[in-house]
Amino acid sequence: MSILDYFRSTKKTNTASLAKERLQIIVAHQRGEREAPDYLPRMKQEIIEVIRKYVQISDEQVSVQLEQNDDNLSVLELNVTLPEGK
C-alpha cells in the first residue's frame, strides 16, 4: 500500500459521509414541508410583497418556519435580512 492509496481511501470515506449528511438534511427538510400548512407558501409571498413596499429584498433574504409544540401551540418564525441603512 502506497501513501497515495491511504489518502484516496479517506477521501472516498469522507465523500460518502458528506453525501449521507446532505441526504439526511434534505429528507428532514422535506418532512418539515409536508407537515406545514398549505397556506404557508402563499403567506410567505404576501409578507415579502409587503416588505418590498418599503425595502428592496429578494426571496432568499426571507426565511419562514412554522414550529408546532405538543401543546397544540404553533409558532411562526419570520427572519428577514434587511439591507444596510443609508
UniProtKB/TrEMBL annotation:
Tell me the domain of life. Answer: Bacteria
Keyword tags: Cell cycle, Cell division
Pfam families, A to Z: MinE
Q: Name one GO biological process term.
A: cell division
**UniProt xrefs under InterPro entries:** MinE, MinE_sf
Q: Does the keyword Cell cycle apply?
A: yes
Summarize the protein's role: Prevents the cell division inhibition by proteins MinC and MinD at internal division sites while permitting inhibition at polar sites. This ensures cell division at the proper site by restricting the formation of a division septum at the midpoint of the long axis of the cell.
Q: Which family does it belong to?
A: Belongs to the MinE family.
- Its name, as the record gives it, is Cell division topological specificity factor
Source lineage: Bacteria, Pseudomonadati, Pseudomonadota, Gammaproteobacteria, Alteromonadales
